[in-house]
Amino acid sequence: MRHLRGRTVVVTGAARGLGAALAQAFDDRGARLALLGLEGERLQEVAASLHNEVAWWEVDVTDAQPWPTQPKWSARLGPASVVMGNAGVAEGGPFADSDPQVCRRVIEVDLTGALGLFRMRDDNAQAG
Fold first, then answer.
1. What's the whole-model pTM score?
2. pLDDT, tens digit, for every residue of 4-24?
3. CATH number, domain at 83?
4. 39 class by beta-carbon count within 10 Å (0-12 exposed, 13-18 middle, 19+ buried)
5. From CA 63, how far away is CA 3, in angstroms rounded?
6. Which of 55, 62, 71, 65 is CA-nearest to residue 38?
7. Angle value at C-alpha 22, between 47 and 52, nearest 5 degrees
8. Whole domain around residue 24: which residue ranges?
9. Residues 6+ apart with CB under 8 A from 62
């Protein structure tokens, strides 16, 4: 299970919960990690708990240009072999009773934020 040794893995929503658990699992498999999320202090704590090379950046996946850190992690850790789009928010309860602003935020993070991952590219990566 060490097939990720030396490869770069990017995890969004890495500050807590599933994102932090994914970071740990990738770290256990030898990956270098780029951790992205909204909570700098928590990202720093997750990063400090890992054993392999790791860097973290505060990023909001809903920004129009959410990936300004991409060249930074490529330069520091190498091009991403795996990108885990884990950032997400959820709201419970009946849709008819939901706050429209909350619904917009869920769509912005869970859909628009995930679509930003598909636009991400590494200009330094070789085709092949």
1. 0.83
2. 898 999 999 999 999 999 999
3. 3.40.50.720
4. middle
5. 33
6. 62
7. 40
8. 8-119
9. 108, 109, 112, 113
